[in-house]
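Title: Comparing notes on inverse folding

I've been comparing how different people in this forum approach sequence design from structure. To keep things fair, I'm posting one structure and asking everyone to reply with a full sequence. Here's the target:
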């Protein structure tokens, strides 16, 4: 999207580099802590993480490969956003 903040574009690029798949946005009515930043402090926030099923249920689970991909994507994101010093 044209109006996306740069930080989101960097995350999407890191996701593609890690997973070789397009980034899929999902808007949810579920509560997560990132909403409080926007609601109470005026700081835009988003949530990124692995895929799973049956959240908060007795049989909740997370896809292991998704954890690997997400970890790699976050590492790429941090290295890109914060910069990497070769020293």
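Reply #1:
Here's my take.
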């Amino acid at each position: 999207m044209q109006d996306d903040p740069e930080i989101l574009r960097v995350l999407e690029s890191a996701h593609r580099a890690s997973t070789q798949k397009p980034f899929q946005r999902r808007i949810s009515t579920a509560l997560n802590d990132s909403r409080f930043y926007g609601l109470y402090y005026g700081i835009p926030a988003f949530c990124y993480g692995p895929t799973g099923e049956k959240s908060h249920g007795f049989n909740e689970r997370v896809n292991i490969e998704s954890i690997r991909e997400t970890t790699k994507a976050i590492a790429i994101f941090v290295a890109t956003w914060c910069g990497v010093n070769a020293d």
